Amino acid sequence: MKIAVVGTGYVGLVTGTCLAEVGMEVTCIDIDQKKIDNLKQGILPIYEPGLEEMVLRNTEKGRLQFSTNLAESIQDADVAFIAVGTPPGEDGSADLKYVLGVAREIGRNMNNYMVVVTKSTVPVGTANKVRAALEDELSARGKAFDFDVASNPEFLKEGAAIEDFLKPDRIVIGVESEKAEGIMSKVYKPFLLNGHPIIFMDIPSAEMTKYAANSMLATKISFMNDIANLCEIMGADVNMVRKGIGSDARIGNKFIYPGIGYGGSCFPKDVKALIKTAADNGYQMQILESVESVNENQKSVLFNKIKKHFGGDLAGKTFALWGLSFKPKTDDMREAPSLVIIEKLLAEGCKVKAYDPVAMKEAQHIIGDKIEYANDQNEALVDADALLIVTEWPEFRSPNFKVVGKLMRDKVIFDGRNIYDTKEMQDAGFTYYGIGVKPYYHSTVEIA
Ligand code: UDX
Would the keyword Oxidoreductase turn up in this protein's UniProt record (predicted)? Predict the structure, then answer.
């Protein structure tokens, strides 16, 4: 199989590299010359565990190539994946100018039948626009090559993208011909060894599946954040409630962890886009509107607790902040709750000393020198009035609390991810605040 992947961002790079890993001949294409030059030397634009080694291995074997020349790279390709960005426009809808620009360029240069697949998250109806762009360019050339369009949404989680690609829960593909179905089956056959299905469907349903999946997951999170906030008011503990409801198989125990709001490149963008698509078509997504506003509020929950603890006056206080990225194992700062918390603390005249295992450079691009960047997690604690847990990196889970307490000015922890145990924190002499957890431990079990 000869594959072209257009766009070497997160999705394109992972897709191209994993397809090369199973033996396909892949060219990843991007207009950014610097990015392509770097990739040829094994320098990646993003951090993703395991990806760098995989890029190097497949480049060395000659199965994975990088190029800025789309025209040349798509010659004789069986499949072209479009994996360029779809940034949200001001009104929340996905901007398709890059996707359709690539479709046109493919139309201007294709030399045989191929399946043109949208991999970027695109609104329902985009495949029709891609088809029209291709037809337009082909007819301008006076050519009539046969082609198919298809939709193949990705469900990759940052930090676990390779694992997700190699062992997917499912692969969803929207097609409109048996020929395209046959080719796409061949592309994905090597990834179905774990027994999970490839689900073929019509194109609009495939396009909708991606938005529905992300919106459902975002809904679970906002729902649990709402429950957590109510638990605090009612004297319940959300960790108990989470276990209590998660053991019902119909609810499930995944993705029901309260925190300080979802971030990243997918959930915020996709929830907004689905609300907008619905509105454009005369339908109001009431649940998703609430999901979004609960999430916005949740980003302030930790700050509100801090303000309350210090009696409203935060001027001159120093805060150690552990974790900057929107979630662990990534350097992605897009829509990260840390940005909201930092902005609020700075506005109150506080000093912030932050540490993140991989996102410091990325954070520096965005926040600049308005905060201090510590060399390690302990350095961030020196003279801090409180410690804030913002991202649940594994290395933050079990620090030496004796050392932590000694380095800080005051032993106070605001844990935005509920990674510590209330009782253990209390025993170690810390004032501990979680999200929806009881401030003090009350055993409900009588020990004889
Ligand atoms: C998500 C989807 O999981 C993936 O299938 C899709 O392709 C892209 O969007 P990603 O953005 O990488 O992936 O992150 P994910 O691990 O899903 O977490 C998203 C956000 O939800 C994070 O901010 C995380 O902290 C938050 N979250 C997740 C919670 O607050 N609670 C949970 O229980 C789970």
Answer: yes
Q: Is 256 in the pocket of ligand 1 (CB under 6 A)?
A: yes
CA 327–ligand 1 middle distance (angstroms): 8
Task: Report the distance separating Cα 180 and Cα 80, nearest Å.
Answer: 12
212, 278 Cβ separation under 8 angstroms: no
- For residue 4, pLDDT over 50 is answered with yes
**How far apart are the CA of 214 and the centre of ligand 1, in A?**
9
Instruction: Answer yes or no: is the C-beta of 73 below 6 A from any ligand 1 atom.
Output: no
Ligand 1 atom at minimal distance to the Cα of residue 337: 23
Closest ligand 1 atom to residue 330 Cα is: 12
- Verify whether ligand 1 is closer than 6 Å to residue 303 (CB atom): no
CA torsion sign for 53, 323, 222, 348 is negative
Q: How far apart are CA 66 and CA 29, in angstroms?
A: 6
- How far apart, in Å, are the Cα atoms of 21 and each of 24, 57, 329? 7, 8, 22
ipTM above 0.85 for this complex: yes
| Ligand 1 atom closest to Cα of residue 154 | 7
CB 78 within 8 A of CB 4: no
Is 350 tagged catalytic? no
| 7-29 per-position pLDDT tens digit | 999 999 999 999 999 999 999 99
List of domains in the chain: 2-201 (3.40.50.720), 211-297 (3.40.50.720), 299-433 (3.40.50.720)
Residue 56 and residue 169 in contact, taking contact as beta carbons nearer than 8 Å: no
Q: Residue 10's closest CA among 35, 41, 33?
A: 35
Check if 165 has its Cβ closer than 6 Å to any atom of ligand 1. no
| 359/351 Cα distance (integer angstroms) | 19
Report the alpha-carbon distance of residue 110 to residue 137 in Å, rounded: 10
pLDDT at 440: 55
Q: What's the pLDDT band for 351 if we cut at 50, 70, 90? A: very high
Q: What is the dihedral of CA 237, 242, 243, 247, to 10 degrees?
A: 150
